[in-house]
Amino acid sequence: MEVRNSLRWRKSSYSGGGNNCVEVASYPASVAIRDTKNRTAGRLTVSLSAWSAFVAGL
């Protein structure tokens, strides 16, 4: 199974309809982040604890 194709990407409802935001997808033990302006350019993957700390700091 190709994990990349099975990810469920989502973005904030506050981002509007344009492609000027980031999307996130959950892995079992991490979070993937990508830019909506260029979805094929790759992604950044961080641990769940790093993502939680980032979100808590917003």
Question: Brief description of this entry?
Answer:
By secondary structure, the protein is of the alpha+beta class. The chain has one domain (3-56).
Would you kindly provide a written description of the structure presented here, covering whatever features stand out?
- The structure is a single chain.
- Helices cover 22% and strands 26% of the residues.
- The protein has one domain.
- The chain is an alpha+beta fold and 58 residues long.
- The chain is built from 2 helices and 3 strands, in the order αβββα.
- Strand 2 and strand 3 form a beta hairpin.
- The chain is globular, with a radius of gyration of 12 Å.
- A 3-stranded antiparallel beta sheet has the order 1-2-3.
The number of domains: 1
- Oligomer kind: single chain
| Terminal Cα span | 35 Å
Mean pLDDT: 87
Helicity level: 10-25%
Strand order of the largest sheet: 1-2-3
Order of helices and strands: HEEEH
**Annotation field: number of helices:** 2
Structural class of the helix and strand makeup? alpha+beta
| Most strands sheet | 3 strands, antiparallel
Number of beta strands:
3
The percentage of residues in β strands lies in 25-35%
Give the low-pLDDT segments: none
Question: Radius of gyration, Cα only, in angstroms?
Answer: 12 Å
Provide the fold topology.
Blueprint: H1 3-6, E1 22-26, E2 30-35, E3 44-47, H2 48-56
Antiparallel strand pairs: 1-2, 2-3
Domain DUF397: 7-58
InterPro entries: DUF397 (IPR007278)
Pfam family, one: DUF397
